[in-house]
Inverse folding.
């Protein structure tokens, strides 16, 4: 498969190369339609993308809970 240059991938996605770079670096997260566009462009299943994002979100919240205490509002996080 031909490897796309970042500017070409951004053009196909309808976003700026800077926006794509921020997604790739994990500094910003694509949402909504852009998430589906990424899945279509890179032939990834959106369920896989969402699963990875959910895993990261659960880990981040669990880390914050251990940092700030699990007693905040009686919230408990379930592992996926």
């Amino acid at each position: 498969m031909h490897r796309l240059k970042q500017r070409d991938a951004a053009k196909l996605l309808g976003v700026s190369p800077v926006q794509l770079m921020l997604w790739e670096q994990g500094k910003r997260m694509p949402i909504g339609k852009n998430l589906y566009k990424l899945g279509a462009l890179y032939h990834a299943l959106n369920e896989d993308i969402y699963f990875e994002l959910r895993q990261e979100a659960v880990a981040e919240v669990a880390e914050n809970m251990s940092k700030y205490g699990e007693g905040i509002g009686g919230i408990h996080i379930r592992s996926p």
Summary: The mean pLDDT is 79.
